[in-house]
Write a structure and sequence with these properties.
11 strands, single chain, 37% strand, alpha+beta
Length: 254
């Protein structure tokens, strides 16, 4: 199935990282969708006239490796689980093909907007120092002693950019999560986020609706914690996790 996806991506017009400056969308709305990878080729075929695909170092499916931080008691996860707004995600991300590393703080406010700020790092050192320390204090009001590395969330990402509207679509495949010696993978799952300056019924969103793919899901970090951390409270995530498992197991779509 991935070969079919790659073949279709080869027919898209390309956009570069430099050309993507107009859709950084560091202050945006996010809409999430989950479905089986068997539905992806048809979806891509039907929107390719409306979108560019990002190409980095000759590839249109880029590798992302992300280390998430949380308090010792997983307070950031618990705020998300309990439906709290004005919450943070703290992470160190490596963009493999472009060989770039960023320390990032994401803030979800009570108006449903996601605001992301980041600073470049020269390596993947897990310590929060220098500019990363300053960013953590300025955004989340926290210090490095308040948080610790928790787990890795790794996947391959396709990025589409709307040719007209201010929208970026991220399509994540091959999700794998790691916590020490514990790992879990979600083969067959596709996680899509429509990132827009304001909510809009764009070509991609309309096509999702036509395919009866409903908006919903949970964050990759929360999914990873729920899967890998024994005894963590996850009642509010169980419906989303159950739906994701059904998508993975869907023999009719596979």
């Amino acid at each position: 199935m991935k070969n079919a996806v790659k073949a279709i991506l080869d027919t898209f017009e390309v956009i570069t990282l430099e050309e993507m400056d107009r859709v950084k969308l560091m202050d945006r709305t996010d809409s999430k969708f989950n479905f089986n990878i068997a539905q992806l080729p048809k979806l891509l075929e039907e929107v390719r006239e409306n979108y560019f695909v990002l190409e980095v170092s000759g590839t249109r499916m880029s590798r992302y490796e992300t280390l998430y931080y949380d308090t010792p008691e997983f307070d950031l996860f618990k705020k998300h689980h309990n439906g709290r707004t004005n919450r943070y995600k703290i992470r160190l991300r490596r963009y493999v093909e472009s060989d770039l590393n960023f320390f990032e703080v994401k803030f979800k406010n009570n108006k449903g907007r996601t605001i992301k700020k980041r600073v470049k790092k020269s390596d993947l050192n897990e310590s929060i120092t220098e500019k990363s320390l300053d960013l953590l204090a300025a955004t989340a009001g926290m210090n490095p002693d308040s948080v610790e590395p928790k787990l890795w969330v790794n996947y391959n990402r396709i990025t589409l950019v709307n040719k007209i509207e201010e929208e970026r679509i991220t399509i994540d495949l091959d999700l794998e999560v790691k916590n020490g010696d514990s790992t879990a993978d979600f083969s067959g799952l596709v996680i899509v986020e429509a990132k827009q300056s304001k909510l809009s019924d764009t070509a991609f969103v309309r096509k999702l609706k036509e395919l009866h793919i409903r908006e919903g899901g949970t964050s990759k970090y929360c999914l990873a914690v729920s899967k890998l951390v024994p005894g963590i409270k996850q009642n509010n995530f169980k419906p989303a996790i159950s739906t994701i498992q059904k998508i993975i197991d869907d023999k009719k779509s596979a």
